[in-house]
Design a protein that fits this description.
This protein is of the alpha/beta class. It has helices spanning about 5, 50-60, 90-110, 125-135, 160-170, 200-210, 225-235, 260-270, 290-305; strands spanning about 10-15, 20-25, 35-40, 60-65, 85, 115-120, 140-145, 220, 250-255, 275-280. It has an 8-stranded mixed beta sheet with strand order 1-2-4-3-6-7-9-10, with helices on both faces. Strands 5-8 form a two-stranded parallel sheet. The longest helix has 18 residues, at about 90-110.
């Protein structure tokens, strides 16, 4: 199998309000074909970071479609003053991104009209849940890695963060950094200061990619992004919404997540009628970028979940 890093040929696609960078990869030719997997990364992430995961999916018989969300990776940035800022006006814009990927990339890849499956991480998993509510039946099954159901406010009280965020938005500071976020520039990050993985090799690999392609990096959230994220999490958790998601789901929580709040993930999974839940006790937030024993648990659960939903 030719590696994803060698095959990578970015595809520009135009969503409403933003030009996106997408990519598609064929399944490995020496294994039975199982259909299309839509791979959705998290906030601040980018396609190249997932080459290992893409090849693991291809080796399981899946063709892979993926993209960078608007405002990050190789997709159009939304603020002119600093490309490291994470910004979005409303999470409905991300639904437009996924709709564009589905229409322009995924639909032409589908053989015989078979529904795709999805593998989504963090903010990507959050956006996927929104999409399942708006467009039920779009996917045969979905696997969610550390989904963004609730986010950590790093020891600050939630009511205070909500109040300050609302005040900053009211004062017209949507495009300003959330306090402390500029210091999270990946070029300043070390393994000891990062909060997402216990694997130094995979962390170093991501850092190397960002050193080689500095324009791919994001440092952190603006008040506008944070306000939109809080509103979207509230919307998703509202009474009746999780209960109406009928797509079969595997929700994987990280026991040592310092970015998303795992108990909230666990609670939401219980509200979704077709959701199975697995918690990897020692894993950090980026489960697919973790050490081999934790990744092995993840992939074993993925294989067991998908064997009857995307058979060879």
């Amino acid at each position: 199998m030719i590696p994803a890093a060698t095959l990578f040929d970015p595809l520009p696609i135009q969503a409403v309000g933003a030009r996106l960078r997408a990519a598609r990869f064929p399944a490995a030719p020496d294994v039975p074909y199982r259909g299309v997997c839509v791979l959705l990364n998290g906030q601040t992430e980018f396609i190249e970071k997932y080459f290992e995961v893409i090849d693991e999916l291809r080796g399981r018989g899946f063709a892979v479609a993926t993209m960078d969300w608007r405002g990050q990776g190789g997709s159009a940035r939304l603020l002119a003053d600093d490309s490291r800022k994470s910004f979005v006006g409303d999470f409905r814009e991300y639904e437009e991104d996924l709709d564009t990927l589905m229409n322009w990339i995924v639909t032409p890849m589908r053989a015989g009209g078979a529904k795709p499956i999805a593998l989504a991480h963090s903010m990507g998993a959050h956006n996927l849940l929104r999409y399942l509510l708006k467009k039920p039946g779009s996917f045969e099954a979905c696997v969610l890695s550390a989904p963004m159901i609730g986010i950590s406010f790093r020891g600050q009280r939630e009511f205070l963060v909500r109040a300050i965020t609302a005040l900053q938005v009211w004062r017209g500071r949507r495009s300003n950094w959330v306090w402390g976020m500029e210091a999270r520039d990946p070029h300043r990050m070390t393994f000891s200061t990062q909060m997402v993985t216990s694997d130094p090799q995979r962390f170093a690999r991501t850092q190397m990619l960002l050193q080689e392609q500095p324009d791919l990096r994001l440092a952190g959230a603006t008040w506008g992004w944070l306000a939109a994220a809080i509103a979207s999490m509230d919307w998703l958790k509202a009474k009746g919404r999780p209960e109406s998601i009928a797509t079969p789901l595997l929700v994987v929580g990280a026991g040592k997540d310092r970015i998303c709040i795992t108990p909230q993930t666990r609670a939401l999974a219980k509200r979704m009628p077709q959701a199975d839940y697995l918690e990897i006790a020692e894993a950090g937030h980026e489960i697919m970028m973790e050490r081999a024993p934790f990744r092995a648990q993840f992939w074993a659960a993925f294989d067991d979940f998908t064997k009857n939903r995307a058979p060879a």
